[in-house]
Amino acid sequence: MFMAERDDKMMTMVYEENTGIMSVKWSDELSVESGQFQETMVSLFSTIVEKNVSNLIVDSGTPAGGVLTEEVISRFIQHIPNTPLRNIAILESTDYLWDYNLLQVIKLLISNYDLPIAVELMKGSAAAAKWFASMAANQPH
Description:
alpha/beta
């Protein structure tokens, strides 16, 4: 069962209730330095909390510009510790540098704030779902 939370030109967010996996994809036209990107971040984190999402697939596409600014990073810092997230899969894009920077920023937050979150770079959604299942099998019940 799919339940689309948000689907507009800037971001598509889909929560699959039976697997507990949320997928988010940003438009390639959206610069990460824009106010619109900030709005999508707020929407994403509030939905993660509201739906109690523990597994997130991030498909950042190839952003139309911008870098992970101080403002974007502080938005992550402000919101990630207050979520039920346990696993974040970042899907590989055509821009390896962007993927790697995003991965490193999230790993730094996890380390600095001692968060119980795992993050990995993945080839696709199927690989991410398989990884989530293996992580769930290895967690104490």
